[in-house]
Amino acid sequence: xxxxxxxxxxxxxxxxxxxxxVYAGSSLQQIKAFLDPTMKFQVNGQPFQPQxxxxxxxxxxxxxxxxxxxxxxxxxxxxxxxxxxxxxxxVFLGEKGxxxxxxxxxxxxxxxxxxxxTTYNGKDFKDVFFNNASGxxxxxxxxxxxxxYQTLYLQVAAVGKDIENIFVQDSxxxxxxxxxxxxxxxxxxxxEVDISGVQxxxxxxxxxxxxSLFVPLTTSYYK
Length: 223
Prior knowledge:
The chain is mainly beta. It has one helix at 71-78, and strands at 12-15, 34-35, 41-43, 46-48, 61-63, 66-70, 82-85, 90-93, 100-101, 106-107, 111-112, 119-120, 123-124, 128-131, 137-143, 151-159, 163-170, 175-182, 189-194, 201-207, 212-216, 221-222. It folds into two domains: 12-93, no CATH class; 100-222, Jelly Rolls. The protein contains one helix and 22 strands. The protein starts with 11 loop residues before the first strand and ends with a strand.
């Protein structure tokens, strides 16, 4: 589920905290502003203190009647992904426009680029996770989005036998973010998973004898 960017009052959430690239531009304009350490915050009724990546307390800045808050700290509190592109000097809030393949962040056995194993329904996906071992077994692999993305679009196919249990889990909190099944007749099935702020994921499936798990890494992606 996509989460919305929410801001209360006249606060303008426009500053990244501890992001060196923000300060490196040659077009910066010097201003006279004021820090306001007396301002208090609540998020969903609970006290909240903005902090940088190292845990140091951050305070808002007041400039010409407008209050500016650190984007990274506030986005974390609201569950909205934030990223910064140093080359284009662009702050990204929520989902980015283009997807990023999970191929660069996967860790697990059964990954293959063998053309005899990467083809499904006549299409060669080039790079896949394909557990085609024998017997009843559990299968899984790790992904490392590192808190950079809002959503995981995971494509999965059951080969030979239906997959009656598959889940995506936040490996740091053990919270299952998505639970489902995959039938052979469904073909490639796409799971959309909210992964805002998640550092690492565990993908798990229970497989039957003569059943295989096929995950194309080139068409499964983060946004």
